[in-house]
Structures are given as C-alpha cells and as structure tokens.
Amino acid sequence: MKPVRLPAAATLALPRLALFALGLLYILPGLIGREPWKNDDAASFGIMWTMAHGTWQDWLVPNIAGLAIPDDGPLAFWIGALGIKLFGWLLGDVLAARVGTVAIFLFGVLSLWFATFNLGRRQDAQPLRLAFGGQPEPDDFGRTLADAAVLIYLGCLGLLVHSHETTADALRVSLTAFMLYRTVRYVEAPSLRNAALSGLAIGLLTLTHGWVTPVCFMLAVFACTRLLAQPVGRALRDLGLAFLVAAAVTAIWVVPAHVLQPYNRHPVQDWSALHLAQFGLPTVVAYKFFFRVGVWFFWPAWPFAGWAIWAWRRQRLALHIVVPLAFVTMGAIMALCASVPEQGQLLILLPPLAVMAAFGLLTMKRGAINAIDWFSVMALTLCAAVIWIFWFAKLTGWPAQAAKNALKLVPGFTPEVGAVALPVAALATAGWFALVHWRVARRPAVLWRAVVLSSGGLILIWILLMTLFLPDLNYSKSYAGVARQIAQKLPPNAGCIETNVGPAQRASFAFYAQLPFTGVEGGRCDLLLLQESTRARDNRDVAPHHRGKQWILLWEGRRPADKDERFRLYRRAD
User: Fold this and answer.
1) Which of 212, 264, 287, 427 is least buried, going by the fewest C-beta atoms within 10 A?
2) Residues near 567 by Cβ (< 8 Å), separated by ≥ 6?
3) What is the tens place of the pLDDT at every residue in 49-58?
4) What's the N-to-C CA distance of the chain in angstroms?
C-alpha cells in the first residue's frame, strides 16, 4: 500500500512569480559587489578573464595569464568569458563573468523542478484515493512536489557558497540536475529523442568536469533500465546513441585542441590523465570526509531522503525512488573513491537527494514537521540576531567583546555603513519575520510548509552576510589591495615577471594590477615575484639566488588578514 494520504488542499503550489523571486533572492546576493575571493573563485575568474582578453589559443587551453590549469573542462570558462565579451563594457569584467553564473543556477533549478514534476505526476507516485474524494489531481500533486524539491535544494547548506562561485562546480551541479531530468524523461518514455537529449547532458558534463562523472551516470541510467525491466537491446541501443551525441558534443573542444596543439601543449591529454588520477579504491580518509562533511553539507535533504527510502520500501521499484537513488548511489561511490576528497565532489548528490527528500516529505508526521519548523525559526533567527549584533558592535564598539571579535579578523579595516546594504538587510529581516508570522498564524496545510522556513532563513543569513559584512569579506579574502601595492613598486617599462604564486593569486594580480607574467612558453625575466609561507616553505618557493643570479628586493607585503602568506618582489641585480 502506498504510504501517502493527502487532500487537495495540501497541494497548493507556490505562485510562479514567488518561486522565481525566491531564486533571484538566493543567487544575486554574493554576486553583486563581491570581488573574486581567494582560491577557486579567483582562479576560475582568471581563466575566464584570460580567455576573454586573449587569443584563440586561450580558449582551447584554460590558463591564467600563461599558467595552464587542466583541472576542469573549458565549458564553464567559455560561458564566463562570453559574458565578459558581451557585458564587460557595461557591468565590468567581474560582474559580467557572473551573468553566466545566474543563468547556470536558474537552469539547474528549472531542471530539478521539471524532474520532480514528471516523477510526481506519475500514477505510481499518486497518494491513495480518499473515501469521499478530494484527493489532488496528478499535475497539482507534481507541481507541489516540485516546489518542495526546489525549496529543499535551496536550503541545502553545501550549495550556498558553491552556487555563487564562478567555478566549474556551479555548472557541474546544474548539469547533474539536467541529466537527472533527461534520465527521468527517458526512463518513463524510452525513445531515440530522449536518448539523444540525455547524450547532450552527458557531453556537456564531460566538457565541464571530465569524463569520469558522465560515464558513471550512464551506468546509473543503465541500472535504472534493468531495475525497471526494460528490454536490454533497446537500452543498449539508446545508450549507444547517447554516447555518440555526447562524443559529438565533446569533440567541439577535444578535436581542435588535439589537432592544433595551442601553445605547443596537449590540453586534452593533461585533462584526461588528471581526472583518471583523481579516482582509486575507497580510503578511510574518503569515508571520514564523506560522513563528517556530508552531515551538514546535505542538510536538510538527507533526513528526508533517508525517510523516503524507508517510507516507500514496499514500492521500491517506483520510478521516483529508483532514478534518484541510482544517482545518489553512483555519486556516493565517486566521492568515496576520490583520491583527494573535496566538497565539489559532493555537489552532484544534491539534486537527486532533493528529489528524494520531496517524496520523503510526503510521509512525515505533523509533529515532525512542526519540530523542523520550530528548529528553523529558533536557529535561523538566532543566527540573524548574532549577525546584526556583530555588525552593530563593529561600528559602535559595543558590546566590546563582540566588536573585538569582529574586527580582529580584518586588522586595519575601517567599517562603514552601506547606503544600499543596510536597507536591503533591513528589508530581508522584515521579510523573514513576515514569513514566520504567516507560517505560525495561518498554519497552512500545504506540503512545502515544512521546508519554506529552512530555505527562507538560509537566504536571510546569506543576504545579511553579503550586505552587512561584504566589505569585510572583500577586505579579508581578496588580493586586490596586494595587487595594487605590487603595481606601484614595478619599475618603469617593466618586462615580464617570473613567479611561483598560485592560480588565485596570479589571477588577481593579472586582473587588478595587469602584471606582465610569463606566458605558457615561459622566458627569461628581470623581475621575480615570490609567494612564501612564514611557517614553512613549500616546494614552490624560489630562493633570491634564482638561476644563479643575485636579486634586489623591491617590495614585501601580504594581505592584512593573512599572517601566514607573504609576497616579495625582486629585480635582477645585473
């Protein structure tokens, strides 16, 4: 027997405009006014900026001012570089590169919504018919489940930061949602058209992050066809077509990069070998990372998803359980087999977990739903209050301990009241209290009531951080200030600069200070920029007697918020 009894009153869908506005409230804060931050965000922007202002070779070899970066495929960087080309003159290069980030995020949310909607309107997912009628219509039921899945997705803690970065991970998770949607469409209605569109998703994923993830997802699709007892011959034929379409999409980059060998490099070989080396047998480190980080990374999706597996155990071959569970299983295997565990590897589990969580939400008891609501209200309201207290303290000095804690992370920073940031933060806070009042006073019976406060509260926290504390975060996480200091110390008519700085630092220095780093081919330079650690030197450090020559120190400095990192600029003595 199905575990769901639901009246039509519980399937009231969110207004489309409200859902769209919620998505924009989620994605826009943290994109506007934010400088490229340390590590992956700045490094990825550097690749996009180099492509947009470089030659055709830069579009085939992802690099940062001459430093080749074979970690990811070029698709995400092509999108960002295209944004710079089209809108850089109007928005500036940083914000123009993030136009693609907004489009990528909305594309992923839309794919997730349609995947859940198609699963929810199927007959095997419908609730039991009520004795006197009044059960929801299939389409209404599907829309409500899709809204709930989107709210759960937006409430996941692991998605918050990664979706706002200009990295390949943001595109990877959205394409995973698209692949999930195309798999749902194919499995429920096998056809050559749906197989070809699945191949399109596989090809785009390959161009984004490598071939390992798409191959594993193809295995997940095949597993779904076997569990649902579809003919083996037709499944193999359709997967073959999907593979051909994926190969054609991937060839857009692979063929010219392999034939033309830009900068006399082999970017496809480097990229393929690097991704193959990232996977091996499961390790204890990977297990510890998965469960330690996953507890908060997948929250609040994983409790609902786990409950869905239990609640629907008698209908375990239902499509809405088989497809997302196959993707979750394959994603977990890839995460556990990673040689170097990273949070980006966990992102691909979020879309299928959100779908499963929506179906788990159906069977939750009213007491459990109310407990989740009250926990969200108390925890998120407390977090918002703490943020406001620290913001007030850093401006006024009271409470003294809060002011000390807020300012010790940004030594030398002078806090100011933002003319736009403060009203936006105040409006967001007022909106939160209005949402809480609506939920408590009206006590709506709609299905998504259990997660609207979780997602709304998380959006509030993010808006407060990206308004009240955005100048502080830019000050502590950006290399813009250091880049301008180096530019002031450059000799007149400076030639090229040799350096050992990392990708994020190289990107920031090239963008903010236009430092003339050596190209991919390398070369002899009269200037040397070193990145060192005050604690311990790493194998990238170069002594001032570089290549047997004496060097004269021109400048030394660091970011005020980072006491471990240090930069030195040298000029040849001869």
Assistant:
1) 264
2) 482, 486, 501, 505, 529, 530, 531, 532, 555, 556, 557, 558
3) 999 999 999 9
4) 85
